[in-house]
Amino acid sequence: MRSLMDRCCSRCTHSPQTPCKDYVLCRRDGPFCHDDPECKRRRKAWLNSRFPPPGSGQRRLLVCGGLTCGAAGSFSLPEAFRKAIEKAGLEEQVTVTLVGCLGLCEEGPLALVMPERVLYCRLKLEDVAAIVEEHFKGGKPVERLLFRDDTGKTYPFLPEIPFYRKQQRVVLERCGYINPEDIAEYIAAGGYRALTSVLFSLSPEEVIEEIKKSGLRGRGGAGFPTGKKWEAARRVPSSKRYVICNADEGDPGAFMDRALLEGDPHAVIEGMIICGYAIGSDEGYVYVRAEYPLAVKRLRIAIEQAYAAGLLGENILGSGFSFHLHINEGAGAFVCGESTALMASIEGNRGIPRIKVPRSTEKGLFGKPTVLNNVETFANVPLIILRGSQWFANIGTKGSKGTKIFALSGKVKHTGLVEVPMGTTLKELIFDIGGGIKGGKRFKALQIGGPSGGCIPEDMLDLPIDYESLTGAGAMMGSGSIVVMDEDNCMVNTARFFLNFTERESCGKCTPCREGTKQMLNILERITRGEGSPSDLSLLEFLGQVVKATSFCGLGTSAPNPVLTTLRFFRSEYLQHVTERRCSAGECMALRRFVILAEKCIGCGACAYVCPVKAIKGEKKKPHHIDEKVCVKCGRCFEICRFQAVKRL
Ligand code: SF4
Ligand code: SF4
Ligand code: FES
């Protein structure tokens, strides 16, 4: 038996044309239709090779094949490991597999040794031989390649690493642990069991009830209750309904959906099929960013394998229920993440939003009732069915149930993919899991929810992560990107950066969004050039409120959020720009000034050497000085001086 998907013998009759309802459970625990110890033994042997039990003498090396590790060189590691393992004569004991993102992207390329769960970081091709010799042959992990904290302490085992300790990885449970290009591994890890149980033991109404009871809310934006959405679509009389997965993840800093699709695509597919059964739909679309080629490739493979196994297509597992799934690669516009624009794009039209009456659940794709949820929402569905709505409802807070995946990036020490229960505070996320701020700098703010989200200051870090708390702070959950900023980030420039993004991405349909964001951006650019005035702040606030109140779709109604939250929480920085013509963070080039403190300067000449315009003069071993008329404010002197003698004003 080369794959768990192969027939154990001729008595197994399952195929898409001759479906067997026990197929999914039978793969792992069967055979059920005949009693043959040899068939059972062969299945067990396959399972043990993929999921080696402790003490079996078998090992599996999981090499992270997520995009970040891949870009750092992980794609060439499996082949190098296989060769070295073969050379050492260990091919019977150690297998190597490329998996999805393991989470701790900052330390990549990563590789995890199972079953002991030893994690190796920052791997290079040169490290392969040492791991094979010392660990696989000698039985001792290679110390220098283990995760190391600031104090120099090493952590051999993944669950002990602080980054993972406070997380609750349920949606990401399989991500990084199974081969995303092999449906057999998904099934072996419990996949498609939820679908089987739905098809043969629950009515569509019972499925919807279960999702409603769980309290699952959409993970893509505003957090609309998922069960209610499904119920609304089912109630509309129609012979055709659609299911859409929104995988058009466009926020700068967001990579949750990409990682899930790259690491566990079948979880999303299974969630979509269950949704189709619940609402009475036989067709679905995954609208995925074309800029995610690896995610698209793995999704395509997963869909093909699901069809070949009879888990997609006609008469799934002999239940009488049919579901077909298509991939629609995105058109590259941020606004296509908006539900009505997304549907217009699938229909072959220009992706612009339409008014939401009637709702998509009544009249959506091709005018038919449609449920649109995002990647993470669908990936939660099989878990809820398998473990029960009560299990899910017990995680999180009163109004926000379950866990949430975040893409943690910016100035935090450990960037990567994180999953925490709702209710976890922002402080826990940044400091306990993310390890705090890089380079001993001071935390300044975090931006949550992408370009439409808000900036949260230090004194609000005890805020629990839930839909209502974040909205109350002027931010939003969004799809889950968190960008951490330190003392070197200028909040005016941050607001300008995000508004620059939304202004460019405005589809132009409505005037407040098209013109309002443009005017706001002009003002912010003026301020960062040092040409702003105090009255600009109230004008920004006024425009922001108008754009929010009168724009047509979510892009416009949330675009001013970064500006309004920075004005609310970091007003003094704006005032510094417009009254003192100063940017203390030093990000606004036009407002930067550098001086040399004579009392600290030892006259080493390093700054004069690196200055590209020779603006620094001084005799050796005597204090130097900067000619501000010549200085182009590049900051190279500030970076090079080891005596903190160059001051940024
Ligand atoms: S690098 Fe620092 S200490 Fe050396 S000359 Fe420049 S300012 Fe003075
Ligand atoms: S900021 Fe750049 S241009 Fe100005 S003095 Fe320093 S190195 Fe020279
Ligand atoms: S891509 Fe490897 S850990 Fe995220």
Q: Which ligands, by name, code or SMILES, are bound?
A: iron/sulfur cluster, FE2/S2 (inorganic) cluster
Overall radius of gyration: 27 Å
- What's the story with the biggest beta sheet? 5 strands, mixed
The neighbouring-strand order within the major sheet is 12-11-15-13-14
Question: What would you say this structure looks like, in words?
Answer:
The chain is an alpha/beta fold and 649 residues long. Helix content is 38%, strand content 13%. The protein contains 26 helices and 19 strands. The strands form 6 sheets. The chain has a 5-stranded mixed beta sheet with strand order 12-11-15-13-14. Strands 2-1-3-4 form a 4-stranded mixed beta sheet, covered by helices on one side. A 4-stranded parallel beta sheet has the order 9-8-7-10, with helices on both faces. Helix 11 packs parallel to helix 13 and helix 19 (491-505) runs antiparallel to helix 20. The mean pLDDT is 94. Bound molecules: iron/sulfur cluster (2 copies) and FE2/S2 (inorganic) cluster (FES). One iron/sulfur cluster is lined by residues 596, 601-607, 624, 640-641, 643, 645-646.
Features:
four-stranded mixed beta sheet, binds iron/sulfur cluster, binds FE2/S2 (inorganic) cluster, 13% strand, 649 residues
Secondary structure blueprint with pairings:
Layout: H1 23-29, H2 37-50, E1 59-64, H3 67-71, H4 77-87, E2 94-99, E3 111-114, E4 118-120, H5 128-137, E5 147-148, E6 154-155, H6 162-165, H7 183-188, H8 193-201, H9 204-214, H10 226-235, E7 242-247, H11 256-263, H12 265-279, E8 283-288, H13 293-308, E9 324-329, H14 339-346, E10 370-374, H15 375-387, H16 389-393, E11 403-410, E12 416-421, H17 426-433, E13 443-448, E14 454-457, H18 467-472, E15 481-486, H19 491-505, H20 511-528, H21 535-550, H22 554-558, H23 561-569, H24 571-580, E16 594-596, H25 606-610, E17 616-617, E18 625-626, H26 636-640, E19 646-648
Parallel strand pairs: 1-2, 7-8, 7-10, 8-9, 11-15
Antiparallel strand pairs: 1-3, 3-4, 5-6, 11-12, 13-14, 13-15, 16-19, 17-18
Helix pairs in contact: 4-5, 8-12, 8-15, 9-10, 9-12, 11-13, 12-15, 19-20, 19-23, 20-21, 21-23
This protein binds iron/sulfur cluster (SF4) (2 copies) and FE2/S2 (inorganic) cluster.
Residues 594, 611, 613, 615-616, 626, 631-637 line the site of one iron/sulfur cluster.
